[in-house]
Specification:
binds coenzyme A; Aminopeptidase
Length: 164
Amino acid sequence: MLSPAATDLQQLYGQGYRLCPTPNGQLSLVLSTEREIDLYELEQLCDAVGWSRRPLRRVRKALQHSLLVVGLWRHDPRFPRLVGFARCTGDGVIEATVWDVAVHPLYQGAGLGKQLMVYVLDLLKAMQVERISLFADPGVVGFYSAQGWELEPQQKRCAFWYSP
Ligand SMILES: CC(C)(COP(=O)(O)OP(=O)(O)OC[C@H]1O[C@@H](n2cnc3c(N)ncnc32)[C@H](O)[C@@H]1OP(=O)(O)O)[C@@H](O)C(=O)NCCC(=O)NCCS
């Protein structure tokens, strides 16, 4: 039998949600692929991490065509807030590429980016994707390499590969 809290979380975030452990016990942070992303909230998150804006209708289409769209939510029973995001493209069998990994600056440095990546990889591994890649900005290479991502051996740039 599910506890009421878990039932509430399932209603808001779908079956496959994952609660992130945080140092602040007052705060619940939830990863989900099923809760719909509000494009304006996503835009605010992208603004907050300093990314340039894209037309919302193009973003909507990009999300629709993505293999996986993951939101990290600050739980609130009435107004969950989007505080993190990642998405993947690919065929879901042989290849997947991770894009647009972001955690809102107010929530950075608490292990959430790492948990977001673990969640993304768990989902891709469950699909049995053979190869996962991403393109890291130079200032973020250390974030990924500390998690076991390796520099793509041929090009020696910022592309990484990971074989589950
Ligand atoms: C990169 C980002 C997602 C990391 O999120 P975060 O929640 O702050 O990361 P975490 O707290 O989970 O950090 C996990 C570990 O990575 C380290 N780390 C975080 N950002 C790092 C960076 N830019 N470079 C090197 N190491 C980094 C942390 O110190 C931590 O180390 P520890 O496990 O030894 O304590 C976040 O800083 C962000 O959204 N940045 C702006 C957008 C961006 O650049 N995205 C990546 C595009 S390629």
